[in-house]
Each structure stands twice: as structure tokens, then as C-alpha cells.
Specification:
Glutamine Phosphoribosylpyrophosphate, subunit 1, domain 1, about 45% helix, about 650 residues, Rossmann fold, alpha+beta
Length: about 650
């Protein structure tokens, strides 16, 4: 795991001093060493910060040149099957390796097969910059799911790129305007989906794609692997094998992916929440390890958010070397002022806080940590999939006119009244903040499709254009990339194309890299992904229970009673904090004159919402957190 940055200039030659500034801005991604490379004519420069994981010697130093000298590579990530690629290369032609890094393997493969075919053969997570001296072209590429970030854009005749915006910001020519339309996306989703960024004319490379800047300074994009295509192909080729065989094949596929991702020359461990996904990953790790796997979890005093006891029980049963840390509200609150710098682009998924805390703890013991992320998207793990599917089948039978009347009736009853009435509901069926949920449901009752319903349920702000001054919300690209008649498959596909890469993976990457910890996601081995999409939905959902197939495999390793409990999530009591210990911080960022002077938000709407939240009339925690994360970021980088 590393960080990279670079420049292709069209006017002034590139200086190493400028490359050093860009690399220094992302030192946390690679604290072990730095490297710089300049082309012969001085118009191209690559910078690299290294977090040494495989081949800790100088033989793994970057930027690295190919044997012929034609290619120079700056690369961030891990190629898990690089040893198999080496064997394939050796069968074609004898070669002398300088070391055993996957960077050297990549370069050798690119010289033989070219970049596109090499990436199609590779299994891993990565972002890379490749200079071809023969064709005078620069190529940028990102892994299939977007585990590793890569930004790019033109600034005053300089083509700049880097792992994070901080690298671009360090260049003297970087002075873009803030993209107001991107703020509307932040308010709707709590993240800014690719290819957009918070800045105009600065973009994110799309997952599974290669961007080429040719000798004429023209940009073209090519897809080497498509999640949309893989999902469509899988759904069209659903396996008809017996369930017992499906479970055996799935377990074997997962074990292979976990085994490959345990490759490291440094201490390695895993995050363990005690839920299905992380418990299964740890179980498969321990089954293939001769020593206890190091596992990590954090606990909270508030039982609404504490899963540490479950994780500890699973760890004890599996025999892992378990470390847990109970954090106080003060520990969590201390992270809030750091968030703008950690994420360096507005990002408002509040589980960013515990994600940083568990990463910080794990880094004290290991340099690499595996996680159970993406299990929900692949195996139908989110409650909203089942609930939204059921809801759509029911409300679709009701005429739109009647639905609108029902929506008005739900909104007519104040949130606080609904919350009081919820006490009469049996505990098993009771929902926290019932009033907020019913008011949100009312806002989407008039939807005309399951996709539209789902968008409404996952949106924080239903009409962010009313809040952001002078903005037009861009059309979400994922709307054109996934189309399934089954509403559950459609929701899973939409999450895979946007929520997973732009929220979940961003959250983990930035939190972990802020403490120089590499994270790996076995569920995102593309062969696991393709296999999962060939499984019938009936083995993912059974009797209203999600991830049935994963549970069946997990129960071979961990007793069922340790796992079966309601899904908790990784959230924080933002509503209480904003009325209490964060009130002063939030008030300063949401002050009326400040909002009007800065001119991004409709101050009247924000102030009314803030007062309603403080009074307890409504719980606007997520809406306000979206605005606060932008305000905090703006204060950090533009005040």
C-alpha cells in the first residue's frame, strides 16, 4: 500500500521539488520511503510514497523502470496472484528477477502483454501511473472495484494526478473552483460519487478503467473490466447445481481469496465485529494459519453501538489473538476535528469515526488488516434490500393518488408523537426514531418504480438543489449502468456501483491510510464477485434472513448462537452529540452570517433545521452532518 502523484506538463518542465511537495502531502500513505522520477525531456514526473508490504528491500523501490527501460511505473496496491503471473511469464521466456515485489511482476507483464491484458489477468487492488517512453503516453488505471483512489485534472497547462486531493493541492498551479453541483451529491448520498470530485475539472478515475493521455494531450478512457457486465452475465447464468455443491464451491472460492490476501512480509491481522462477514473472513484465515490470527475490535459503553462482546466470543472460539479497545464518547469526539484532513474531500458517513478508531488500534500491532466489507452488497445483507422489495410489492398495488393521501397522513402526525406511540409496539418489532422513519417513508410513497423508491430511502436530502445555491444535481451515472427487473438485484447492483466504491471503500481507505495501515477485502476478489452473482437469490435470502449461504458456511466454524442477532451497524449517536458536546463546534460552522457570507447553502433552511434538531422536534442528524462535513472541510482548506 502506497501513495502516488505525478505531473505531465505542457509548458514548464517538472521540478523534483514540486514532486516532493506532492508526495509529502500524502506521506501517511507511504511512510517508509519516497521515490521520484523525471522523464528525459523533463515534462513528465512521477512521485511515490512507499508502505512496504511485499519485498521490503530496495528491490521494491518505486517509481520502477522496466528491464527494457520503456516503461516507468508508480503503483499503489497489491497484486495477490503476482507469483502465479511470474510463473506464467517464466514459462514464456526465461528471466532474472531483481527481487520478489509485485511491482516488478507488473512491469514484466506489461512489457509482454500490454497494460489492459495485464490488468485483466491480475487479481488485486491498485491505482497506478504508467509512462510509456516509446509512445510518449501516460496511462492511469484503477482496480476493478475502486478500492484504491486516483484523482486527476488539468490545472494551468499541467496534467496533475494523485492518490488523494492533498497531492494535487500541493502543486503551485492547483486553483480550481468548488463544484457546487458535487455538493448536491454529497447532501443526497453523504459522499461524492465518481467520476465527480468536490472541485470543477478534477475527477476520479472510474473503477475498472484505464485513462490514457496521448502525445497530442488527448484523454481517452477504456474499460478493462465492468462490474455492470459481470453482474448482468452472472444474473443471466444462474447456477442450477444442488445447494450442497453451491455451498462447497463458494467456500472454496472464498478460502482461495483469503489465502491469497494473507500474503505479506509484515504482520497481518483482521478486523472482527462479530457479525457474519468479518467472522467468516477470520474463520477462513484461522483455518489456513498455523499460528493465531491477530484480530481487532472496538467497544463502546453505549450498548446500542457495542458489538465488542460478540467479537470477543467469536475470537475466543476460533482461537485468535484478540485485541479490543473500549473507547469513550470523548475518544470518538476527539476524531471529529481530524476528519477533514483524513478524508481531504467532504465525506459524511458518520461510521468514519469508529472506522478510524479501529484502524488506529490495529496499526499498533499489524501493518495489514483484512476486513469483511462487501459481504452485504454481494450476498444481500442490508435490511433495506428485503424491506424495500417487500414495500414496493405492497405499495405498487395502491394507486398513486391514494399513496399521496397516505403520505400526507403520515406527515400530519408529528415526529415526536410517532416516537411516543412506538413505545406500545412490541420490542421485537420496535424501530428507533420511528417518527423520522415514517416521515421519510411518506416522502417516497409516490414513487413510480422500485429504483425510485430505493433512491428516496437512501437519500439524506430529497431535493438538495433547494439547499445548495446555484447548483444543479448531476445525473447519477449508476442509473444507466444497472438494470434488473428484480428490485432486490437492482438495489444490490446500484450499491455495488456507487455506495460500495464511493462510500464503504473510501471510508476504509482514508481511515486506514491515515495511520499507514493497509486494508484488504477478500469479498472483492473478482472471482468471488463473479461467483456470487451466479448464485440464485434463494441461497442469499432464505425465510426472510439475509446472507443465508454465508451463514451456512460460517456455522461450520462458529456456533450459530454466537452469530444470530439483529444487524447493528457501525454508527455513532450523532443526534445526542450535536445537542451536547458537539453543539458549540456545530453552531460555529452553521452560524447564520457565516452561511450567508460563504454562499454555498440556503442559510434559512439550514438554520431552521438546526433549531428543530436542538429543540428535539426533529432528528436531523444525518442532514446536518452532511453540511457540517462540508463546512469543516471548507474551513480546513479554503479559509
Amino acid at each position: 500500500m502506497c501513495g502516488l502523484a505525478g505531473i505531465k506538463a505542457s509548458k514548464d518542465i517538472v521540478s523534483q521539488e514540486q514532486l516532493e511537495l506532492m508526495a509529502d502531502a500524502i506521506t501517511q500513505r507511504g511512510p517508509d520511503s519516497a521515490g521520484y522520477w523525471l522523464s528525459k525531456d523533463g515534462y513528465v514526473g512521477l512521485a511515490h510514497r512507499r508502505l512496504a508490504i511485499v519485498d521490503l528491500s530496495d528491490a521494491g523501490h518505486q517509481p520502477m523502470a522496466s528491464v527494457s527501460g520503456r516503461y516507468t511505473l508508480a503503483y499503489n496496491g497489491e497484486i495477490y496472484n503476482h507469483l502465479a503471473l511470474r510463473q506464467e511469464l517464466e514459462q514464456i521466456s526465461a528471466r532474472q528477477w531483481r527481487g520478489h515485489s509485485d511491482t516488478e511482476t507488473l512491469l514484466a507483464a506489461i512489457e509482454l502483454w500490454g497494460l489492459k491484458l495485464t490488468l485483466q489477468k491480475a487479481t488485486g487492488m491498485f491505482a497506478l501511473a504508467l509512462w510509456d517512453d516509446q509512445t510518449q503516453t501516460l496511462q492511469l488505471a484503477r482496480d476493478r472495484f475502486g478500492e484504491k483512489p486516483l484523482y486527476y485534472g488539468w490545472q494551468q497547462g499541467n496534467f496533475l494526478f494523485g492518490s488523494q486531493l492533498n497531492a494535487l493541492r500541493a502543486h503551485k498551479a492547483f486553483a480550481p473552483a468548488i463544484n457546487r453541483s458535487a455538493i448536491t451529491l454529497l447532501l443526497r448520498y453523504n459522499y461524492i460519487p465518481a467520476p465527480y470530485s468536490i472541485y470543477q475539472d478534477v475527477y476520479k478515475i472510474l473503477p475498472g478503467s484505464i485513462l490514457t493521455l496521448d502525445v497530442r494531450q488527448q484523454l481517452t478512457t477504456e474499460t478493462y473490466w465492468s462490474a455492470s457486465a459481470a453482474m448482468a452475465e452472472g444474473a443471466a447464468e444462474i447456477s442450477t447445481a444442488p445447494e450442497s455443491q453451491l455451498l462447497i464451491e463458494l467456500e472454496q472460492t472464498l478460502k482461495r481469496a483469503v489465502s491469497q490476501q494473507m500474503m505479506a512480509d509484515v504482520p497481518l491481522g483482521a478486523f472482527l465485529s462479530g457479525g457474519v462477514d468479518s467472522s467468516l473472513i477470520v474463520a477462513l484465515m484461522q483455518a489456513q494459519s498455523t499460528t493465531p490470527v491477530k484480530t481487532f475490535s472496538i467497544g463502546f459503553d453505549d450498548p446500542r453501538f457495542n458489538e465488542a462482546t460478540y467479537a470477543k466470543a467469536v475470537a475466543r472460539h476460533l482461537g485468535t489473538e484478540h485485541t479490543e479497545l473500549y473507547v469513550s464518547a470523548e475518544d470518538a469526539l476527539a476524531v471529529v476535528p481530524k476528519l477533514a484532513e483524513i478524508y481531504d474531500e467532504p465525506f459524511s458517513d458518520s461510521s468514519q469515526i469508529p472506522t478510524y478508531l479501529v484502524s488506529h488500534m490495529a496499526k499498533q500491532h499489524v501493518t495489514v488488516s483484512l476486513s469483511g466489507d462487501a459481504g452485504d452488497e454481494l450476498f444481500c445483507g442490508y435490511n433495506r434490500y428485503i424491506l424495500t422489495g417487500k414495500l414496493w410489492h405492497k405499495i405498487n398495488r395502491i394507486p398513486v393518488v391514494l399513496r399521496k393521501v397516505l403520505a400526507k397522513a403520515l406527515i400530519w402526525v408529528p415526529v415526536k408523537v410517532w416516537n411516543k406511540l412506538s413505545v406500545a409496539i412490541p420490542a421485537r418489532w420496535r424501530l428507533n426514531n420511528l417518527g423520522d422513519k415514517l416521515h421519510k417513508a411518506a416522502s417516497v410513497l409516490s414513487c413510480t418504480s422500485a429504483g425510485q423508491l430505493y433512491l428516496g430511502l437512501v437519500s439524506h436530502w430529497q431535493d438538495p438543489e433547494q439547499v445548495v445555491i446555484g447548483a444543479a444535481e448531476p445525473k447519477a451515472m449508476l442509473a444507466d449502468q444497472a438494470s434488473f427487473s428484480d428490485p432486490i438485484l437492482q438495489m444490490m447492483a446500484q450499491d455495488t456501483l456507487s455506495y460500495l466504491p464511493d462510500d464503504i471503500l473510501v471510508k476504509v481507505d482514508r481511515a486506514a491510510m491515515a495511520v499507514s495501515l493497509e486494508t484488504r477485502v477478500p469479498f472483492l476478489d473478482h472471482k468471488v464477485f463473479e461467483h456470487a452473482w451466479r448464485l440464485p437469490l434463494s441461497v442469499k435470502i432464505r425465510n426472510g434472513q439475509s446472507k443465508w449461504c454465508l451463514r451456512k458456511i460460517l456455522y461450520k466454524y462458529v456456533p450459530k448462537k454466537m452469530i444470530e442477532r439483529p444487524k447493528m451497524g457501525f454508527s455513532m449517536p450523532l443526534d445526542v452529540w450535536l445537542r451536547g458536546p458537539l453543539k458549540g463546534w456545530a453552531e460555529a460552522l452553521l452560524e447564520d452570517n457565516r452561511l450567508r457570507d460563504e454562499g454555498f447553502f440556503n442559510a434559512e433552511i439550514i438554520r431552521d433545521m438546526w433549531q428543530e434538531h436542538l429543540s428535539g422536534k426533529r432528528n436531523w442528524q444525518y442532514h446536518l452532518w452532511d453540511v457540517l462535513m462540508f463546512q469543516s472541510w471548507y474551513e480546513k482548506y479554503h479559509k
